[in-house]
């Protein structure tokens, strides 16, 4: 996607047509967690044949919503960039115009903590971002949100292995279930990756929900993150 200029009506109509096909929408949603998947997996996620999936993937590539790369004999597809994931999350927010019940365990897990293009979203992601801001560990700079040295020191002391902190910036991302901001961008990805490596979080199978571990919840509580 090119964000250099606003979409004109023809580009917006083309984007709408790309998202209007349920099979293409299913393949895009399967990639919102930031993974790269082969065509066969995406065909299965969409409930269509590999030949049909191939045609849909070509349209999504041509429309700038997907990127592809080859690894050995296999070809993998992923979202073109984080802006596509943010757009899909925003559409989910627009669709959820009123509070809804979360009747299943899977829904509750997704709302509590999930991966949004490799960064932490859901109630836990919102609470974590709010704590960083409240403690003045996260500040706004010319390139976006950055982690101050005292914040990096506190997170490192809690057991997270942080990398490239001075060069990484994040962005605020409106959470579609909480209607508040969580931390996205490269900084959000790095912090979420550190939590996964430390065992604070673990991915649940068959989706993008994340399960907080007891040790992770304890450390987050020590950092001041409010936990329900």
Automatic annotation (TrEMBL):
<dbReference type="GO" id="GO:0003700">
    <property type="term" value="F:DNA-binding transcription factor activity"/>
</dbReference>
<dbReference type="GO" id="GO:0032791">
    <property type="term" value="F:lead ion binding"/>
</dbReference>
<dbReference type="Pfam" id="PF12840">
    <property type="entry name" value="HTH_20"/>
</dbReference>
<dbReference type="GO" id="GO:0097063">
    <property type="term" value="F:cadmium ion sensor activity"/>
</dbReference>
<dbReference type="GO" id="GO:0046686">
    <property type="term" value="P:response to cadmium ion"/>
</dbReference>
<dbReference type="InterPro" id="IPR052543">
    <property type="entry name" value="HTH_Metal-responsive_Reg"/>
</dbReference>
<dbReference type="InterPro" id="IPR036388">
    <property type="entry name" value="WH-like_DNA-bd_sf"/>
</dbReference>
<feature type="domain" description="HTH arsR-type">
    <location>
        <begin position="4"/>
        <end position="99"/>
    </location>
</feature>
<dbReference type="InterPro" id="IPR036390">
    <property type="entry name" value="WH_DNA-bd_sf"/>
</dbReference>
<dbReference type="GO" id="GO:0003677">
    <property type="term" value="F:DNA binding"/>
</dbReference>
<dbReference type="InterPro" id="IPR011991">
    <property type="entry name" value="ArsR-like_HTH"/>
</dbReference>
<dbReference type="InterPro" id="IPR001845">
    <property type="entry name" value="HTH_ArsR_DNA-bd_dom"/>
</dbReference>
<dbReference type="GO" id="GO:0010288">
    <property type="term" value="P:response to lead ion"/>
</dbReference>
<protein>
    <submittedName>
        <fullName>Transcriptional regulator</fullName>
    </submittedName>
</protein>
């Amino acid at each position: 996607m090119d964000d250099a200029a606003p979409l004109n009506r023809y580009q917006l109509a083309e984007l709408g047509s790309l998202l209007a096909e349920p099979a293409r929408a299913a393949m895009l949603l399967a990639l919102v967690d930031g993974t790269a998947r082969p065509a066969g997996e995406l065909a299965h996620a969409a409930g269509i044949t590999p030949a049909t999936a191939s045609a849909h993937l070509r349209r999504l590539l041509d429309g700038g919503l997907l990127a592809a790369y080859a690894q050995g004999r296999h070809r993998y597809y992923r979202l073109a960039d984080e802006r596509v994931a943010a757009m899909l999350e925003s559409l989910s927010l627009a669709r959820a115009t009123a509070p809804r019940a979360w009747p299943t365990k899977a829904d509750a897990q997704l709302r509590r903590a999930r991966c949004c293009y490799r960064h932490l979203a859901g109630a836990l992601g919102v609470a974590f971002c709010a704590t960083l801001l409240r403690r003045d560990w996260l500040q706004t700079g010319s390139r976006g949100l950055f982690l101050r040295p005292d914040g990096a020191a506190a997170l490192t002391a809690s057991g997270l292995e942080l990398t490239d902190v001075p060069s990484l910036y994040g962005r605020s991302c409106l959470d579609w279930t909480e209607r508040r901001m969580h931390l996205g961008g490269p900084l959000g990805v790095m912090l979420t990756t550190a939590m996964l490596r430390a065992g604070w979080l673990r991915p649940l199978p068959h989706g993008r929900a994340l399960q907080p571990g007891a040790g992770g919840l304890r450390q987050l509580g020590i950092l001041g993150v409010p936990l329900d």
